Amino acid sequence: MLGVDTHPPLVVRDAVMLAFAVLVAVSAMTGHWVVALVVAAAVVAPFRSGMLVLLAVLVATGGFVRASDARDGLAPDRLGAYTGWVRMVDDPQPYEASTRVILDVEGERFEMWSRGRAQQLRVRTWRGGQWVAVSGERVALDEQRGDRVAWQHVVGEFRLDWASDVDEGGPVDRASNRVRRAIERAASSLPADDGALFRGLVVGDDRDQPREMITRFRSSGLSHLTAVSGQNVAFVLAASGPLLSRLRRWPRLVATIGLIAWFVALTRFEPSIVRAGAMGILSATAYATGRERAPLRILSVAVIALVFIDPLIVRSIGLWLSVGATAGVSTVGPWLAQRFTRLGFLALPLGITLGAQVGVALPVVLVFGRLPLVSVPANLLAVPVAGAVMLYGLPAGLVAGWIPGTAPILMFPARLGTRWVDTVAVLGERLEPPGPWPWVGWALIAIVSAAVVAVGARRGKNQTLHGDTSPDR
């Protein structure tokens, strides 16, 4: 009929897209067609639509087929001796007695462990995107190790005999490495731990972060700050906003997509950044075309697209922490904030923080076995300052890296910010209660939050009954 909106409600559309995202992810994770079809039936059953059932079956089948093809691709095509050029996929990852790198050898990825001191000193100077002349042997991985590194598309191990020349790689790789080297030079003006944390906050370079730092950030629920996260994309776009806003609609969209793609490449295609980049591109496209930008729907579409493009990404814990936090922040967070209004200025940050914790609770507990109780106050204290370091750190670090004389002045605010964030992590680790007490604390938080929500709902009902519809109340 004319004048009647036949589109389903926005909530239903969000629910449908979320259901399909879950379906695609489960299909790719399990890799079994029976499980995929059962999940397909379960996620569309509430909608009672034959068309959705058909689409769900097709999506489940597609996810299963893509995942099967990706797993088959983990079997190396060629093993044995190799002499020639290899491409560095990522920066070297140093450990206490060894250094790990991922090499692209004739289109296949192999991990290499460097254990001699002299060899490690040389290997650690390599950078992602560079080409290195090497000689060595390609060997297969055992099944357990293969499963652990499958999300990185690693198919075997490369045992190095010797390495010689290094080529800087293509234009994008050279540009990314110049930026990262400038940030490294700027960070070198800070104390060692602060410099390592600064590089992690700004460009995701967590190579030199000591084990103690990683442990205390994880114990205080701040591990998402030790390396680059989806927040960085938002801050890069925010910092570029004054320039982007001067462009017309379509040039602005092209520039935005280019900026996001550049930052994703700069941060070495970390799964959390790839997810944030995909959402940023979808959001920018929706804005340019005049479509609604519903966060949960954009997140669902991004997950569906990423899993179809790279089914092995579902094995990355970083992706699921990023997806969970985003889902919690965009749904549970605002909902709680609206019901915490009696807390004044704390309502929004507390609601968003609790929403993020709800979103990451399942993957955190499954992987790390605990959900730190201090994560709520720690995030409230650390995240705003970490965000300021992210926003300020990239331009300031570039200038300080390219003009070393400016480093003491330009990097002083970054030093204060990183020191604050690390101090919050130190205190969080010390104050985190032992044993079962964190679970008791979370139970109390849930009870208090439910009580606040119930009181708010009762007040709203009473105001409606008495005819008070003022938006200020």
Label this structure with key terms.
473 residues, alpha+beta, OB fold (Dihydrolipoamide Acetyltransferase, E2P), five-stranded mixed β-barrel, 63% helix, globular, disordered N terminus, disordered C terminus
Describe this structure in words.
This protein is α+β, with helices and mostly antiparallel strands and 473 residues long. It has three domains: 63 residues, no CATH class; 90 residues, OB fold (Dihydrolipoamide Acetyltransferase, E2P), CATH 2.40.50.140; 200 residues, no CATH class. It has 18 helices and six strands. It has a five-stranded mixed beta barrel with strand order 1-3-4-6-5. A hairpin with a 4-residue loop joins strand 2 and strand 3. The N terminus and C terminus are likely disordered.
Mean pLDDT across all amino acids: 86
Please list the strands of the largest sheet in the order they lie side by side: 1-3-4-6-5
Strand content: 5-15%
Query: How would a textbook summarize the main sheet?
Result: 5 strands, mixed, barrel
User: Could you say which overall geometry the principal axes of the C-alpha atoms support?
Assistant: globular
Please give the share of residues in helix.
Answer: 55-70%
List the domain count as a whole number: 3
